[in-house]
Amino acid sequence: MRNLWMLIMLITLAACQSRRFDIIAHRGLPRLYPEHTLKGLQEALKFNVDYVEPDVVLTKDNIPVVLHDTHIDTTTDVKKRFPKRVRKDGRFYAIDFTIKEIKSLKANHRIDLKSGKPAIATRVPVKNSPYSVPTLEEFIHVVHQYNLEKGTNTGIYIEIKAPAFHKDSGKDITAIVHNILEKAYEADPTTPIIVQCFDDAPLKRLRKEGSPFKLVQLIAENSWGESRIDYNAMRTKAGLKEVATYADGVGPWIPMLVRPGKEKKMVSNDFVNWAHNAGLLVHPYTLRNDQLPPFVKNEKEALDFLIKELDVDGIFTDNVNTTVKLLD
Ligand code: CA
Known about the structure:
single chain, alpha/beta, two-stranded antiparallel sheet, 13 helices, 35% helix, binds calcium ion
């Protein structure tokens, strides 16, 4: 009898120690509210997610703002407001505008530059947008306030965007952003912070400088031109071992984790095993209920696949409203 109780205790302990599954609100709640607006952030927080994600670039006067791209012509009305500030390549860049100018813009759902129409047709349209581009500090303030008020500890999963591009413009985005994160951490150490980047240079530097935050290496396809990294080499057993020398986790694209199995079914390839064996968390991107992986029928199946077949540690999702409900 005593042995049986010991066994039950051991099984319970093992279950408690099993890996948890993090829900990361990708760019807020972009299915319903323009990406990276404070409104989208506030609505995402209400679903009690584990992390909210700001992507960050710098303004001309070195203020980190929450934007996915270095250019601002697909997500704001900059073209209409400042038509003369276009660069030779026909684009408008956040780095050419002061924070005051950026703040005067309206943030919209992403548009397709050529057609001027919504880039993703399934998003709930916003007429006469009341939304603006938040600074990183404003974003952090909203998260801290929410956590304090609700007694939660939703974390901030920040992405440093285009560090090499910023460096070429004489700006050290890593130092500027990390300085703000350190102050945020000082003000509220109970709000977890993770720093992610497609470029390994900022992560290696932060590790070397003793950053207190978890670091996540994002993994792209080489063809996307995200950085000078050879991501194919990174996606091997040896490559992931090397990542583990400076990062705590990896953020791969979902299709990087699968291979065809029997009866035309997709199955897990070796990626997640290699990463876990190297001690890395795996947080793939991005679950979208309006654009699911072709091998699943609905979002529930997608989540089952991510958890049971792939055994990943969490997911970046565009629709926390449905993801959280399905997991509950
Ligand atoms: Ca991101």
